[in-house]
Amino acid sequence: MAQILDGKIVGAHVRAELADKIAKHRESHGTEPGLTVILVGDDPASAIYVASKEKACHEVGIRSHTVRLAQTVRTDDVVMAVEKANQDPTVDGILVQMPLPPQVDTTRVLAALDPTKDVDGLTTYNQGLLAGGLPGLYPCTPKGVLRLLDYYGIPVRGQRALVLGRSTLVGRPVGLLLLGRDATVTWGHSQTRDLPALVSEAEILVAAIGRPGLIQGDWIRREAVVVDVGINRQGPKKVVGDVDFLAAKSRASWITPVPGGVGLMTVAMLLENTWQAFVHHDDAR
Ligand code: NAD
Fold first, then answer.
1. Which atom of ligand 1 is nearest to 189's Cα?
2. Closest CA to 136 of 154, 118, 149
3. Are 165 and 255 in the same domain?
4. How many domains does the chain have?
């Protein structure tokens, strides 16, 4: 029976460490990190995510401010909000909550973002640093996946890792991070053939697809480490992952629950990236 990779425990650990560093810095220097969130439109899920990010910031001592823009805004309006935050020296991190409404050109918005404030790691610059194996601001969810594995002392080097999903936000960067840690990485995606055979070979499986229970328990290799990034809403209160949790739990050695796994790590890594950006700006001041 698998042991649990507990995002609640590891997330709380990361937040406590950060709160301590931020408090010490405030005492000695009188300054603290600042995060601006740009929230466009009235998508209820986005509003919930932003509220939980604001709360988490407050708890560790990061100043946060949310810029709310109407659903009907033009790309130029979002770019202007980004540029304003770029120029504000009290803002260390800028997070543009995705997805943006269809009339807004996401590529243009991200191109406007100062890469040193890109705490979601979505600019071409930061994605390039990650692809090149260089230090930078890396996307929060992938970083959170690696932090979970590290906290529980799970070896990555030489392991066969299968990442399902290839989005710029999750699948692609999580695979690059695993590669950077010497895993033997394979990506599976919507065009991949014979998913069960591929899954059965994986020693580390990261599922980031967005299809409830797509990965069946009996596909999973015995003693595999299973990280389920998927968040699939089933009704107002129920959320499930991409993996059939109960069946997978009886075969895996470690597994993340949904909720209570990777999602909590994402928020913790956002706070950590904001701190990282703050330290970078502080050194430059
Ligand atoms: P996305 O829609 O951009 O990407 C989904 C990926 O799944 C694509 O690359 C696609 O090729 C792949 N895919 C589709 N069908 C497949 C199949 N049958 N087999 C294998 N791969 C298939 O989504 P995303 O933004 O990468 O998010 C993926 C999931 O992770 C979603 O459920 C999302 O809600 C969740 N998510 C969770 C967190 C978190 O903090 N836990 C953060 C971001 C996203």
1. 21
2. 118
3. yes
4. 2
Catalytic residues: 53, 97, 120
pTM: 0.97
What is the C-alpha to C-alpha distance for residues 150 and 264, in angstroms, rounded to an integer?
16
Q: Is the CB of 141 under 6 A from ligand 1?
A: yes
Tell me the pLDDT tens digit for each residue of 190-216: 999 999 999 999 999 999 999 999 999
Of residues 174, 166, 91, 82, the one with CA closest to residue 123: 82
Residue 40 has pLDDT above 90, yes or no: yes
Task: Using the structure block, give the residue that is written with the tokens 């930078």.
Answer: 136
Asked if residue 150 and residue 88 are part of one domain, the reply reads no
**207 CA from centroid of ligand 1 (Å):** 8
Q: Are strands 238-240 and 232-234 parallel, antiparallel or unpaired?
A: antiparallel
Find out whether the beta carbon of 257 lies less than 6 Å from any atom of ligand 1: no
The Å distance, Cα 141 to ligand 1 centre, comes to 12
Domain identity same for 110 and 173: no
